[in-house]
Amino acid sequence: KRWDSKKAEFLYKMALKIQESVLGCDHLDTANTYNNIAYLYKCRDEKGDKNRAEEYYLKAITTQEKFLDGENIHLAMTYNNLATLYLDRNQDDDLNEAAKLYFKAISIWEKKLGKVHPKIALAYCNLSAVYQERHQPGDCKQAELLLRNAVDIFEATLGEEHPYSAAAYNNLGS
Length: 174
What we know:
Blueprint: H1 5-22, H2 28-43, H3 49-67, H4 73-89, H5 92-113, H6 118-134, H7 139-157, H8 163-173
């Protein structure tokens, strides 16, 4: 069955209305729904969706930063999600903000999950894409270094023949 983004949006908005009414805007469950709505808008490609996605990610981050430890893995995931939106939009200011958010997520994940974890390798791949898109001096070398680190992590945690390893090899080759 095909995913119906309109139905999903309706259901998320219905849940959000209840959560905001009962729990308030500053509640972690509400923040989770903000994140879900943002992801829906990020994935969908209708006019204005990317801006709506950013709005909901920022709401989620604001709430999470109030109530979660600054080194919480869920907060790191929301940083990562917003960074990916900025990378997708591929505008200079967005790319610089994406890099900052990826660094925040990576820092948290390294502390909580250790330096050798697939989430960190995926973030390295995404951050390398930021460097490849920015075209600033030294960015190509930094992108290559990040991809080599990602390959090492994927090989160590998932094996050489995992699709993530293959994607990292492909990115490193391009």
